[in-house]
Amino acid sequence: MSRALLRSALELRTPITRLPPPFLLPIPIRPRANALTAAPAAARFFNQTTQIVDPPIPSSILADAGRTPTQSPTAPAPTAAPVAGISKISAALSTQIPQPPPPARTSTEPLSESVRTLLPLLAAQPGHYATAHIHGRPYLVTAGDLVRLPFKMPGVAPGDMLRLTRATAIGSRDFTLTGAPWVDERVFECRAVVLGTESEPMRVLIKKKRRQRRAKRVESKHRFTVLRISELRICDELVAA
Amino acid sequence: MGVKAVHRITTGRNGLGAFILQCKKMDFHYCDWAGSSKGMNGFIKSILPKFAAAHPQIEFTVSPRPSKHPVIIGHYINGRDKAICVRNLEPLQILKKVELLRDASGEKLKKVTKPVQSINESVRGIWSPYHGNGMRV
């Protein structure tokens, strides 16, 4: 009897003596440095499935038309604050991708004349695609596509909805809106659902030197986050307003 | 010669519309006596109630399996299952394995080289050399 009591005490002590991983701690450690979600959120429990819903953009932003025709449609707002995730990416991959400008999320600049005239035509055509960027890599997606990211995205659970706000191009059959480098976030809405984490068969690499009997077996198995593009919409009603 | 209907079969695309978790059931097997089940017994006592309460869409069963190593088996909607032996693991290590089973799709692991899979028609169509204005060489 005493042995059973001792053992149960030992078992129950295990999670207490060792600090759980930071995502299990009930205190918010840092805002989520995730470039593709709309709003940064605190660290989440494994059982927390609340969705992050971004506030709607007031249509009065786009109502005024004090624009110049030569202006790029995706010119970033000079007052916009840089996102931590984006600056981190640029630091890591500065040799490959151009330095991204501060995000145009809170941009209040009016769209250019060509965008205002041609975006309704683009939206009127039936099929749409977008070249969405996630951590610096482009994915040409349409609604309903399955995207297997080449990494495991931290801090997401199956069923979470992400909004992809970075795109270098959106288009239909005859029209393409290319950004410089990013398409304005107000003209499209691309959302993805996290389906889960997939894996690959174990990779085995045998490392062997000549005239030596030792052979080293190196194993690796990567994990990938899988997304489903649930929505890709061109917001032409903002232009019409 | 009559008119032939186009035969089409719908394919499920999870997440387009509704999202359904692929893991439908998890079995936890433990042993009261063996030392390799020590962490598993602690997990069942301390962590599993919270995890099960957080996932009402998964059916959880806990059953003894005397004189065997502890095992977690996940059952999936596609009919397959995944079993993970968790002998000598700590409760938090077991939690990682449980989350792995929850996040898995139940499919067999396979190597995928193209990141985007699509069954939609190409938006911009297929390029043809016989259409358009052509290019002067």
Care to describe what's here?
Chain B: Belongs to the mitochondrion-specific ribosomal protein mL43 family. The complex is a heterodimer of chains A (241) and B (137). Chain A has 241 residues and is of the alpha+beta class. In chain A, 19% of the residues lie in helices and 26% in strands. In chain A, a hairpin with a 2-residue loop joins β1 and β2. Chain A starts with a helix and ends with a helix. In chain B, α1 (38-46) packs across α3 (91-103). Chain B contains 3 helices and 5 strands; from the N terminus they run βααβββαβ. With 137 residues, chain B is of the alpha+beta class. The interface between A and B is large, with 50 and 45 residues.
Q: What would the keywords be for this entry?
A:
heterodimer; A: 241 residues; alpha+beta; 4-stranded antiparallel beta sheet; 10 strands; B: 137 residues; 4-stranded mixed beta sheet; 3 helices; 20% strand
Condensed summary:
Chain B: Pfam families: L51_S25_CI-B8. The complex is a heterodimer of chains A (241) and B (137). By secondary structure, chain A is an alpha+beta fold.
CATH fold descriptor of the domain at 20-62 and 87-104 in chain B: Glutaredoxin
**If interface size is counted as residues with C-beta under 8 Å from the partner's C-beta, which chains form the largest one?**
A-B, 50 and 45 residues
Radius of gyration of chain B: 24 Å
Secondary-structure element order of chain A, as H and E?
A: HHHHEEEEEEEEEEH
Tally the beta strands of chain B.
5
CATH hierarchy class name of the domain at 20-62 and 87-104 in chain B: Alpha Beta
Oligomer: heterodimer
Question: Poorly predicted ranges of chain A (pLDDT <50, ≥5 residues)?
Answer: 14-18, 28-43, 59-98
Q: Which second-level CATH architecture of the domain at 20-62 and 87-104 in chain B applies?
A: 3-Layer(aba) Sandwich
For the CA atoms, what is the radius of gyration of chain A? 23 Å
